[in-house]
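=== RUN LOG ===
request id: a7f3
mode: sequence -> structure
chains: 1
length: 400
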Amino acid sequence: MDFFLSDEIEQTRLQVRDFVQKEVIPLESNPANFDEHESLLEPIVAQLREKAKAQGLWGFQLPKICGGRELGVVGMAALYEEAARSPFGPVAFNCAPPDDGNMMLLNKVLKTEEQKKRWLQPIIDGKVRSAFAMTEPDGGCGSDPNLTYTKAEKKGDKWIITGRKWFITGAEGAQTFILIARTSDDERKGLTAFLFDKDQPGWEIVRRIGIMGPEEHGGHCELQFNGLEIPDENRLLNVGDGLKVTQIRLGTARLTHCMRWLGLSKRCMEIAAQYVENRMSFGTTLSHHEGVQWMMGEVAKEIHVGRLLTMHAAWKLDQGDYARKEISMAKIHVADTLHKAADTAIQLCGARGYSKDTLLEWIYRYARQARLVDGASEIHKMVLSRSYLSEKHDFFQWGV
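=== RESULT ===
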């Protein structure tokens, strides 16, 4: 087992850390830098992205032929963690959801260079944003894609889309959409994936759904489809491969959430450490109180466990493994760790942590969604249970 990073990844990690410290974190304290949804204003994002590109800090996850760095999933784990020490770091490097997962998906499934030039390259270049439309209201799909009721009916060389989607991250302002729709009643081959452009008629954003925590750019929206026409050439993979597309899309993307959440968890510890090392209480700093040490030590341990789980899953993905159970374990643990890190840091910082003088309350509100997005923790525990009951002793085997 090798836990060393390559020289290229380590050097890039330090560059990302330096960029976030000097260019991104200073923006957090000025309310004028944000819109009403607590997202960085677009002109500021554009400036950050130009600076990141100028330093070669762009497209860590993508092939060099597309303008990326092609550093593998292990490289992504190291770099995304550093990028997310600020919530606004990932968007600066174009490794924020949902674009990140959509780029990886399209790079894998688009067949021709013409398709990649049309649909993928603009997202890579940061010229447009994208969204992945799967989840539905009113008894439709959430963690179970088989409940999809949005329909795609074939008429000639086009597909006619009717139905609804909701909680579609980044939909407001996105140009490129990936849509999962039902094309038959077949239990395993009943779904198909399509691409469509924002400017096509036959659909609308019904509303931007207000949420408890801060939002990604474009929010979380409800969409209505009233006869959207999608040419068959804009279908992804074969008819009936929609479930396969979701699995390709969500596998690595779930793990990238963990990478970013670990960065936020570490930031919580940094803020708390700075406070307890300076705040006096009963003749000494808080950091010298045994109870405070227990709290910080517990969170530090949980973060490190999460890093090991995440890096192991990343390594398996780089070996060509699907790493389903490893990703599920990381997703459960790191989601809990993010919430624990934010909660502990607020407790240690007292009223200051609960105020908007630090980033902790922002992270705390954001953290609650971690146990829900890309599969609730209970769903991932079901995955692990099924794997164990199927594999028994082999569930715990080492790779050979």
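=== NOTES ===
The longest strand covers residues 158-169.
The domain at 244-396 is CATH 1.20.140.10 (Butyryl-CoA Dehydrogenase, subunit A; domain 3).
=== END ===
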